[in-house]
Design goal:
Chain lengths: ~450, ~450
């Protein structure tokens, strides 16, 4: 059965101020309801200031990176009316499309809009925090070109990468919201709301497709409806019909003159556009003569790619690439972090690479240093001092200790079970907390036990 | 009145408060007085400024920090403004003293001053009659001598209509000339704040203080002009247009006063020209459709969560009617039939007015088609809406329009309305000055 999946993706734009006022757009460290003014609180009489130019440019940049045509007609800002506690004026402002007819990874991009974020309502306490109210969002609407949860996941990864590459969206994470529509074999379209991660998206789709297929197998029709994704249970659940049959009574906001997306503005944004992920990948392969897999891993994040290029100024690119792809990626995966979140600096990376090549740091110790930096924000150079390889004498005494403490293994080795020596090497590594050169320790043990 | 000499501000204020104390029980022009007025008067005296010591009453739909901006509705009965409207900031900067918050039609939805939750306002210049609306209290307070001047708001005549009925001067500026930030919405694409005063010179002075660009999105990017210094009643070379359609809709006694005023303008050097406004009568339905939709949108924030009451549960019948109609006609299935068509008619009316104004410098004519009715007399909604027939075109077109007392009929004041091209407030004020006859 043919599955058709389309998305509506919302992500916060990384502007200095909110969309229609000058309250800061970054509210993360603010106490609830302190990052506000009469405009973003929708107080009686408050009027929007001019649309934040930085936000408009951000949407243009993203639209261009998604290969969209930019709209040349006046772009009206509409009021979308609905009643919810997080909406201080009873309507949300959303622009008509700024970009149209784009494409990414074989999926059509129908529209790219500018929109304002509402506040945050906690139904448990009944409290509303308006710190987020009025923060600019980019809204991306795709064609229903996706046919499986796996494809959906890959597409979203690609899209998120492009958004990060644009440099126009918030990188703190947790602000993306996705509405998904799914239909099977021209059945009714079901919309799923409340998805905020790629993992959630994948699970919601898995569940929803199974649900729809089961219905059809039992000869029942799929209802056209809106469902919510319940993260904790990994299921989708029908929302009350009242919420879905809503008429938003769209009108152009009388307080806001339409936006003009001029040729001049588009050209300026285009000229400042950062390299797209696939362009960077190609360039890395050619310029640094590294493999496609290396380049793919390194360009998975713009921050990592930038760091790689800086490291290549001082280190042979092949070596740097191997280090990035194997050691750094491994550390990041272990911590479930992005490069941007990890706090790793070019300085840290150069210090570790330098210590490895001068023989002061073993491969294992290098990983340990990276872990400490990521986990505790430690200084790499300081750690390297501490973890530098042992001199002959300390290694010798560690070898002695290992022999003393493990008479059984020594016995085994001497009686012909040669592999027992690996256990003793491990013990030397443990005693030296990874600072020993494993190869040297092996040599020394063999000599001592012969 | 011009600026107060040092030391006089407090005295002026005390006199005004005395008058209010003595007579406003009967007129009911204020909802709330400013408890800090005296202190502010003292500060204003020290500070000076173009309005030093001038007492200004403010319509209750304009935010004045610390005072209640109730919109004369139970909905906002307890809403204490947490910020100053931009116009109020500008008044304060020039030394004006805010007297208090004036009565009005609830949420500015009315043309008589009778629909306030705080009771109707009396017309001080024609006792027993309505003062007009919706800036009823502001016009009445000025007419009664309670305030040197007042701020009103005008969406379809709400400054000009009560100015005409109360015999004072009122100005609705070009849309986008005066910041609206702080003005509680009736219909955002039509609303403008403007001055009400006893004479043209004071109105001009107030206008030059409150006008000029701000950070608000819908503002024109213009510098304020020193209107009061450039006032001149010499109208030589000025063409004054009169539309023959005015005659078809206006009562004969009002037309009589208006015609006499036009002859005075002629005597000051103006040339009278007849113009045509064939779509004049389309303006009213167009206007009301737009108001309903925009007002519906503007009132969604009064959902009972933040300001105490849900508007639909506590408002008066005219406010409720407009919300219901707005909700009805903005439904998806009707949007094309009503709202979008209204916007098309709006363009037509704007074009027609601007075309007429290409042949002349100003249009001069009646303000309302009929005299103010007696307080308490029941009118149907359509009869009430008909008061706005001659004032709404200026709002639809975004052009400036002012009213100046032109004479009386049986003791009831009648105002002459003067309309001009966008941002041509100066020539409009000059013609008003000439009509006022005390240059
Ligand atoms: Zn704000």
């Amino acid at each position: 059965m043919k599955v058709r999946i389309g998305f509506e993706i919302h992500e916060q734009l990384a502007t200095r101020t909110k969309l229609f006022c000058r309250s800061p757009a970054d509210y993360r460290d603010a106490e609830p309801n302190t990052n506000v003014c009469e405009v973003c609180l929708g107080m009686p009489g408050a009027k929007p200031m001019g649309v934040n130019a930085e936000a408009v440019e951000g949407v243009i940049a993203i639209a261009l990176m998604l290969n969209c045509e930019l709209v040349r007609e006046p772009v009206y800002i509409l009021r979308k009316h609905y009643d919810y506690p997080d909406l201080p004026s009873g309507y949300q402002r959303t622009s008509m499309p700024i970009g149209k007819n784009g494409e990414l990874a074989g999926v059509g991009i129908w529209e790219v809009h500018l929109e304002e974020d509402p506040g945050k309502y906690d139904p448990v306490t009944g409290r509303v925090d308006y710190n987020r109210s009025g923060v600019p969002l980019v809204e991306i609407v795709t064609a229903p070109d996706i046919t499986s949860p796996e494809e959906a996941r890959n597409f979203m990864r690609e899209l998120v990468k492009v958004l990060h590459y644009s440099g126009r969206v918030r990188r703190e994470g947790g602000t993306m919201r996705v509405d998904v529509n799914v239909s099977i074999e021209d059945g009714a379209r079901v919309e799923i709301k409340n998805i905020n991660s790629i993992k959630g998206l994948y699970r919601a789709l898995k569940f929803e497709i199974t649900r729809q297929k089961n219905l059809r197998r039992r000869g029942k029709a799929v209802k056209r409806e809106t469902r919510a994704y319940i993260e904790e249970q990994m299921i989708t659940k029908s929302m009350r019909t009242k919420e879905t049959a809503e008429d938003y009574r769209y009108i152009p906001d009388p307080d806001l003159p339409p936006l003009r997306i001029t040729e001049e503005l588009v050209e300026r944004v285009r000229s400042e556009l950062p390299e797209a992920p696939h362009q960077k990948l190609q360039r890395f392969m050619q310029q640094y003569r590294i493999s496609r897999d290396d380049a793919w891993a390194i360009t998975s994040e713009p921050e990592m790619a930038d760091a790689f290029e800086q490291v290549c100024g001082q280190v042979e690119p092949g070596r740097a690439a191997a280090f990035f792809r194997h050691i750094i990626k491994k550390t990041l995966n272990y911590h479930g972090m992005s490069f941007a979140e990890s706090g790793l600096t070019v300085r840290d990376i150069l210090a570790v690479l330098g210590a490895i090549s001068s023989g002061r740091l073993s491969q294992q110790a290098a990983e340990l240093v990276l872990r400490e930096v990521v986990e505790r924000g430690a200084e790499a150079e300081e750690l390297i001092q501490r973890l530098s390889k042992l001199d002959e004498q300390s290694l010798a005494s560690a070898v002695e200790q290992a022999i003393r403490e493990n008479p059984g293994a020594v016995q085994d080795y001497r009686s012909g079970r040669r592999e027992a020596i690996n256990y003793l090497v491990g013990q030397v590594m443990r005693i030296t907390r990874g600072r020993a050169d494993a190869e040297k320790a092996l040599e020394m043990l063999q000599e001592r036990l012969s | 009145m011009s600026r107060q000499a040092l030391g006089e501000a407090e005295e002026n204020l005390a006199r005004r408060f005395e008058e209010i104390e003595r007579r406003d029980r009967e007129i009911n022009s204020f909802i709330e007085l400013n408890p800090h007025a005296q202190e502010e008067a003292r500060r204003a005296e020290k500070l000076g400024g173009r309005l030093a010591g001038m007492t200004v009453a403010v319509k209750s739909n304009i935010n004045v920090r610390g005072l209640r901006a109730t919109c004369a509705s139970k909905t906002l009965e307890n809403y204490v403004a947490p910020y100053d409207a931009v116009v109020v900031e500008r008044l304060r900067r020039e030394g004006a003293v805010i007297l208090g918050m004036t009565n009005m039609d609830e949420f500015a939805c009315g043309s008589s001053g009778e629909s306030s939750y705080f009771g109707p306002t009396e017309n001080p210049s024609a006792k027993g009659r309505i003062p007009g609306g919706s800036s009823s209290g502001s016009a009445a307070a000025v007419a009664a001598g309670f305030a040197d001047a007042a701020l009103g708001s005008d969406t379809g005549g709400s400054i000009r209509n009560p100015a005409s009925h109360c015999g004072v001067v009122g100005v609705k500026p070009t849309y986008g000339l005066v910041p609206r930030h702080g003005l509680i919405d009736l219909a955002m694409s039509l609303d403008q704040i403007g001055p009400i005063a006893r004479d043209v010179r004071t109105a001009a002075l107030l206008l030059e203080v409150i006008a000029g660009s701000s950070r608000e999105a819908s503002m024109l990017d213009v510098e304020p002009q020193p209107y009061s210094q450039r006032l001149s009643a010499d109208l030589s070379g000025i063409k004054v247009g009169f539309a023959k359609e005015y005659e078809e809709v206006t009562s004969p006694e009002i037309l009589g006063v208006v015609k006499r005023a036009l002859r005075r303008l002629e005597a000051q050097g103006a040339e009278l020209v007849e113009v045509e406004l064939p779509n004049l009568e389309k303006a009213l339905p167009t206007y009301y459709l737009i108001v309903f939709v925009e007002f519906f949108s503007a009132t969604r924030r009064y959902d009972g969560r933040r300001y105490g009451y849900r508007i639909e549960e506590v408002c008066g019948e005219e406010v409720l009617r407009r919300i219901m109609l707005g909700s009805y006609i903005s439904q998806k299935e009707y949007a094309g039939r009503y709202y979008r068509r209204a916007l098309q008619f709006r363009s037509l009316i704007r074009r027609e007015l601007l075309q007429a104004l290409e042949e002349v410098d100003v249009l001069a004519g009646p303000t309302t088609p009929k005299l103010p009715h007696r307080l308490g007399e029941r009118l149907t909604p359509l009869e009430m809406y008909a008061y706005d027939l001659l004032t709404v075109p200026a709002n639809l077109a975004g052009i400036p329009a002012g009213v100046v007392p032109a004479g009386r009929v049986n003791g009831i004041p009648v105002g002459l309305q003067v309309q001009a091209k966008p941002l041509q407030e100066q020539v409009m004020l000059n013609v008003m000055l000439a009509a006022e006859g005390r240059a």
